[in-house]
Amino acid sequence: MLETSARLLRLLSLLQGRRDWTSTELAARLGVTTRTIRNDVDRLRGLGYPVDARPGVAGGYRLGTGGALPPLLLDDDEAVAVAIGLRTAASGSIAGIEETSVRALAKLQQMLPPRLRHKISAFASSALPMPSPGPQADPDVLTVIATACRDHERLRFDYRAHSGAASRRSVEPYRLVNDRRRWYLVAWDTDQDAWRTFRADRIEPRPPAGPRFTPRAIPPDQEIAAQVARGAAEATWRYRARVIVHAPAAYVHSRLPIPVTVESLGEDQCAFEPGSDHPEMLALYLGMLDADFSIADSPELVDALRKLTRRYQRAIGASQQAPG
Predict the structure, then answer these.
(1) Which of 23, 59, 277, 323 is the most buried (most CB within 10 A)?
(2) Given pLDDT bands bounded at 50, 70 and 90, which one contains residue 100?
(3) Are 58 and 43 in contact (CB under 8 A)?
(4) For residues 324 and 86, what is the distance between their CA atoms, to the nearest angstrom?
(5) Which H or E run contains 186?
């Protein structure tokens, strides 16, 4: 009996972790026969869990939606991660979720054993959350996007670009990325036939979700996150320039405060395209490279460098004349 109960808990955990499972997959994961899986599914249904069956040779199963929220199975690391996530959400970048997060956290902490409460309280006493100054994403919108990503369903939405231009998009959603308190959707734009990144706070979904699609080959998550970070850094720049730096690419990359692609032009020369809303600010950043450089294309940046050069020269002259 104990063995059967433990197996039921493992089966329930698997069904909660992924949308669709075949009976063969579940049997392999639990080390039993497909007949045992069918019997265990019947036991879960008897306990009130809405397990849906998909007809066919494969005999697929899915944990459906019911009238009440079934208990979730979390291991120690998952429970700590959820608790920390709820604390972060209380002052995060998702609109209207702060109070709900506090209530959910209070319920979770009542169920945690003392050893896990100690871990979470240590985090809470040391971490100082900063309120989000930027735009907040609607949690319902994030839920719709995340569900479409998980289930490989096409997503249709109205989109407002940075310029204010409105458009309607149909995409294959793949990843939600959080970067510097903003949420982004990485998706394949079926109209443009290309990968695109969208700000989640500018998305207005148009339900229902579209048909399911076969996932494309995508880069590793680390590369996707880096690409989103670069795109977010460049998206609102008003001024761009191509800068040739007389130093190795690795050195220049290590000196930059934000992710920027650096192109190697040889052993001691490279190029990159920084940007900023103000040429003067860009000129100051270039001065921090601590390397010689030239400007390939940006008259505004050249003028800003001249202005700063004259100001620095005046400061040097005034300092030399000042009494000691």
Answers:
(1) 23
(2) confident
(3) no
(4) 58
(5) strand 182-189
Q: For the chain, what is the mean pLDDT? A: 81
pTM: 0.52
Bridge partner residues of 295 (DSSP) = 243
Domain positions in the chain are 2-63, 76-126, 139-232, 239-317
Asked if omega into 208 is within 30° of 0 (cis), the reply is yes
Which of these, 82, 90, 6, lies nearest to 40 by C-alpha position? 6
Assigned fold of 2-63: Arc Repressor Mutant, subunit A (1.10.10)
Question: How many alpha carbons fall within 13 Å on the CB side of residue 212?
Answer: 6
- 195 closest CA partner among 221, 224, 222, 220: 224
**Radius of gyration (C-alpha) of the chain in whole angstroms:** 27
Amino acid present at 139: P
Rounded CA gap, 119 and 79, in Å?
11
Give residue-wise pLDDT tens across range 22-60.
989 999 999 999 999 999 999 988 888 888 887 765 558
3-class DSSP state of 8:
helix
Element of type H or E holding 266:
strand 262-266
Query: What one-letter code names the amino acid at 69?
Result: L
- Say how far apart CA 307 and CA 324 lie, in whole Å: 28
The angle subtended at Cα 266 by Cα 265 and Cα 268, nearest 5°, is 110
Residues 171, 155: Cα–Cα separation, whole Å? 5
> Do 63 and 45 form a contact (C-beta atoms < 8 A)?
no
